[in-house]
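ok, trying the design again with the full structure, not the truncated one.
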């Protein structure tokens, strides 16, 4: 355990300033100052940050750790190790598991396993309904008492307005968010990528924008009626961005997230039958991607989350028609975003860190996460912002290697990740 981080650069009022950080025996930040002269007795307890950037530990509000039920794809150990490799110290895991944790014994067992088997803070969403697809609601109040930070059927949209309305009423009463995968499955029609030029060229069925925006429009009106905190996952279309923008103007309690891959890629990247480019929602048009950037600029989009979705290599070697949806993102998110949005884009480092730390902590009520402050847990990530690497899956700690960014040159490398003062990852 490190007791002192020396010679780091910390964001203060949007500017990088030199800081040392002392960590107490409880894993909390004891002091921050330009120079701390009281040194630990054991020199091994000192980490020299070598002028690198010290960030609050990143927060990923959308991961699939696949455990229990799909451990050939990922486990709590490998998923949390991958997150730490990416600088994430807190994640919120999705409940599309087997068995689905839709009863309290299964959910409470999962909460315990998250605490024991993860090397980071792994929070948990509970299902909205039984089995993620049935109309019967879980007991939302009981799940909150057992540790749920929100409710989602991610992987499926809630298909009936009545069920969603009832869920929103209950969630509003207990003060937790409904976290929505917005997709009207009657409009998907077996689609595998966006309904656009790539789908036509490859002769595969497409997924239209309206399959997302129609359900988002419905849910926004239900949120207006109930007053619930309504959060949209992985927003991907210009129409949904416009709906969220208007809803915020109307005072509806709505937030949303965007993934790195929807910001960085669009359907023009799909040049062949390659399932590494198959995710849900799909990569949309250039106009949709531009709308996502505009949503970040004007605050319509609140945060960035990876939707880390590992699969086996053999699964993703199948055709677009048969491979599962999803890509990994935990280990590539920061470097891809820093390179594209900050180094080569219009955004500041402070904006990027806010989307990955303080804002998700605020949205999901994680008061011990997302900040560097005396008295707070030493959840810390150290990044070398000048280091340039090429994305290579042989370095991944995730079981999943299913990334469309293989071979991409990026800037920004995780050097150290601390979780409550304990080393969760350190670059060799």
């Amino acid at each position: 355990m490190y007791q002192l981080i020396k010679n780091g650069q910390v964001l203060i009022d949007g500017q990088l300033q030199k800081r040392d950080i002392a960590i107490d025996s409880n894993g909390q930040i004891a002091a921050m100052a330009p120079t701390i002269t009281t040194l630990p007795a054991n020199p091994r307890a000192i980490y020299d940050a070598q002028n690198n950037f010290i960030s609050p530990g990143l927060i990923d509000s959308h991961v699939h750790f696949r455990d229990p039920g799909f451990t050939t794809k990922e486990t709590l150990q490998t998923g949390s190790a991958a997150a730490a490799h990416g600088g994430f110290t807190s994640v919120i895991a999705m409940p599309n598991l087997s068995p689905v944790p839709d009863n309290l014994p299964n959910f409470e067992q999962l909460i315990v396993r998250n605490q024991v088997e993860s090397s980071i803070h792994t929070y948990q969403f509970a299902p909205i309904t039984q089995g993620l697809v049935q109309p019967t609601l879980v007991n939302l109040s009981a799940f909150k008492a057992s540790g749920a930070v929100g409710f989602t059927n991610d992987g499926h949209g809630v298909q009936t307005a009545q069920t969603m309305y009832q869920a929103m009423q209950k969630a509003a009463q207990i003060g937790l968010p409904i976290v929505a995968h917005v997709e009207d499955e009657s409009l998907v029609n077996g689609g595998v990528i966006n309904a656009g030029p790539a789908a036509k060229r490859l002769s595969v069925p497409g997924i239209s924008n309206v399959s997302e925006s129609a359900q988002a429009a419905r849910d926004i009106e239900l949120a207006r009626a109930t007053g619930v905190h309504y959060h949209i996952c992985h927003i991907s279309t210009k129409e949904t961005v416009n709906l969220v923008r208007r809803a915020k103007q109307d005072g509806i309690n709505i937030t949303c997230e965007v993934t790195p891959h929807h910001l960085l890629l669009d359907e023009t990247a799909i040049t062949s039958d390659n399932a590494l480019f198959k995710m849900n929602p799909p990569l949309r048009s250039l106009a949709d991607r531009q709308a996502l950037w505009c949503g970040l600029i004007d605050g319509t989009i609140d945060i960035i989350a990876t939707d880390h979705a590992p699969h086996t290599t053999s699964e993703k070697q199948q055709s677009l028609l048969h491979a599962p949806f999803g890509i990994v993102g935990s280990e590539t998110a920061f470097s891809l975003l820093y390179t594209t949005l900050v180094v080569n884009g219009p955004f500041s480092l402070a904006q990027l860190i806010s989307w990955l730390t303080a804002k998700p902590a605020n949205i999901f009520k994680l008061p011990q996460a997302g900040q560097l402050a005396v008295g707070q847990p030493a959840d810390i990530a150290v990044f070398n912002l000048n280091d340039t690497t090429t994305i290579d899956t042989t370095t991944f700690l995730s079981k999943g290697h299913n990334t469309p960014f293989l071979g991409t040159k990026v800037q920004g490398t995780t050097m150290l990740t601390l979780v409550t003062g304990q080393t969760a990852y350190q670059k060799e």
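Keeping the full-length input from now on. The mean pLDDT is 98.
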